[in-house]
Amino acid sequence: MNTIIELTEHNFTEQVLQSKNFFLVDFWAPWCNPCKILAPILEEIAIEYSSISIGKVNIEKYSNIAPTYSIRSIPTLLLFYKSEVLATKIGAISKIQLKEFLDEHIKKMSTT
């Protein structure tokens, strides 16, 4: 089981950009209702996908990270692989949609 990591301006590079594996980053804010809906789904994904690290960036606290990745709405999910943004998903999505998103990109990278 993976623990969801709180990503900050201090640990983002070490945790995400220096990772050699898949890393799913959720950009969110405490006042965002769709973000609240997505949170328990990410907890379930953390249990089911042990090969993917998951982190959350609170854009209210750590506002310098989001502009680097052109985050304009939340929630936004970025899937990183070996420090590169592999894919983006904007808006609240169901667990099934998130699993399809992850499976598609994991499969794509395993065949290259």
TrEMBL record:
Alphabetical keyword list = Disulfide bond, Electron transport, Redox-active center, Transport
A Pfam family hit: Thioredoxin
Q: What does this protein do?
A: Participates in various redox reactions through the reversible oxidation of its active center dithiol to a disulfide and catalyzes dithiol-disulfide exchange reactions.
Q: Which residues form the active site?
A: C32, C35
> Site Deprotonates C-terminal active site Cys: which residues?
D26
Q: Which GO terms describe its cellular component?
A: cytosol
Q: Where are the transmembrane segments?
A: none
The record's section on Gene3D superfamilies has: Glutaredoxin
Q: Which residues form the Thioredoxin domain?
A: 1-107
- What terms describe the molecular function in GO for this protein? protein-disulfide reductase activity
Q: Which NCBIfam families match?
A: thioredoxin (TIGR01068)
What this protein is called in its record is Thioredoxin
Cite the position(s) of the site with description Contributes to redox potential value: N33, P34
Tell me what organism the protein belongs to.
Answer: Buchnera aphidicola subsp. Uroleucon sonchi
